[in-house]
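Teaching note: in complex prediction, the entire set of molecules is handled at once rather than each chain in isolation. The prompt given to students was simply: 'Predict the structure of this complex.' The entities are:
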Amino acid sequence: MTVKEYNNAVREFGDHVYRFILRSIRDSHRADDIVQDTYEKLWRCVTEIEYGAVKSWLFTSAYNRMIDVIRKDSRMVGVEYYDDSNMYAEDNNNDLNEVLHRALEKLPAVQRSVILLRDYEGYNYKEIGEITGLSEAQVKTYIFRGRVALRNYLVKTSVWQ
Amino acid sequence: MAITENTEFPILTPPEDRMPSGSRLFRRPEELTDEQFDLLAAAWSEDALSGEALAEIESVLSVSTERRNRAESFRQIRLTPMNESWTGMHSSLRTIPSFAAFRRTIIPAVLAVAAMIILFVYGPAGAKLKKIDSGVTSGVPAMTVAEIPASSPVTRVTTVPEIRTGSALKSLPAADMRTPATEGMTEMVHVQPLALDHDIAASLSVALSVNNSLAAISPKTIPQPAETNDAGNWMLRSISYLASAVTGKEKKIDGYAIANGAITGINTILGWDMELEHVNNKKGDAVAVSFSSSLLSFTKPLNKSTP
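The expected output is the structure of the full assembly:
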């Protein structure tokens, strides 16, 4: 990959990677740091990566970096220990997309990430599995369970009757 | 109730306590719980079902409008990106090497050429060119055109370059300046006298040697040419001119400060390591300038007459 292609990767995919990390980690400063680190890592091995594979590489690297940060901060909420006791509060906002994003914040980190990759970037199950290190079956399970949880949020917060 | 397989002491299990078997083990699609149906509907909404699973949910949806609506609602659960943008994008952009090389070499070279052109135009070389150029000068004229009656034969006087050498004037023989073809002309003509600016007596002698009628021209009527500075200060004069043109004020030029600034700039741009220092005597007065670099080092005494 040339320097020009690297700069194109910054311009073309920078926002995509940032919003994926931002929605996953819910901290703009940390998201900014993670994306900066990811591009710094890309720059160090810029000659070894083909431009066609750079988007997937960026998401994989950023996701792994995010997991490291979450583990380091001991703020990772695992699927097994996820507490949904305060998940369903009254939500009077009628904008479905905004409500869905608020509901997304209440999902476990893994479900959140796979749904974001699926809806924001349109990756298929296999690609999501390669980025997150999960099997295709696991990706499907997380996505379907996440959809059910989002629907339940909409119903129980009276957004959907 | 657990089923025991103790063959030594078989225990009869009542029929109502037995595990379902045979046809009773099968479930019909309509018997799916809501939780099971939701997971299946979520997969159906993503077109992730195929084969028997797809046929099963289709059969459920065909018999229950409520469940069809429930399954259709999953298609609306899709997130679309909001207005998040990465503010740190520009800090991650890298400079293309060719552009960096261009910025480090070509731009300073172009600036240097431009500076040389300016210095050439406003320096002594430019002034010399203006003097030599066929009498058409933009500044104060060095030669004057005088109109005289041509009652006597008038000789065409050609321009004699570099006739002035310091304070002495060369006397050219009149015969060398006459052309037979012009003798006997009676109309008014323009005569270009010689460059006469310093020694009036010598100028008159030269003029009379050319033609008597030229004696009518008073040397006082000929404006003095602009005083040219000595060539040693031409660079400082050029820089002074540029400084005054930019700032609109007369600036006293410190040659050492300019040279030191230029060296600092070159060091910054090209990463070189050059130094320019004053050498002072015991009284603390600067007596010389010392230049040092990896390739060249010299010390030059300061000229007190130059700034």
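Point out the following to students. The helical segments of chain A are 3-25, 28-44, 54-73, 96-105, 109-119, 125-132, 136-156. Residues 97 and 103 of chain A are 10 Å apart (CA to CA).
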